[in-house]
Amino acid sequence: MKSSYKLGLSFGTVSGVISTLGLMVGLESGTKSELAVIGGIIMIAIADSFSDALSIHVSEESQQGTKEDFIWQATITTFFGKIIIALSFVVPFFFFNLTQSIIVNIIWGLLLIAIINYSVAKGRGIRPFKLILEHLLITIFVIFITYMAGFAVRHYLV
Q1: CA 22, CA 149: separation in Å to the nearest integer?
Q2: 39-57 confidence digits (pLDDT tens)
Q3: Please, which residues have CB within 8 angstroms of residue 157's CB and are 6 or more apart in sequence?
């Protein structure tokens, strides 16, 4: 796979998982509203996909000697990787209630983080366990912090 596609897919996937899980868990703990959570997922899928794609674009443009086709491939791959992953978190809401959907999505997100990091580790020729564990712990930390932030908003600010 071309390095521009690897860049876009790895960045878009990881960003899609962590941003969406954080928003979703925070909104659920803060509002207990399925509508707010689903709406938040859709909004972050759209806005954050454009934001991340433009960020990759500008970041790559700032590198001396980066070819224009590389920049656009990474930009487009980031956008589609992010939006598809983020929107995938809406699917469980068609089949489960709010709490069950959150649990299914946390499992889905952790699985995606493990898969992408396994792929990255294999591509770099390193053992995947440490990389996967490190990034799963960061993801779990984000889930915990956003849950607590939502909880604090609901109990102390509203």
Answers
A1: 10
A2: 999 999 999 999 999 999 9
A3: none
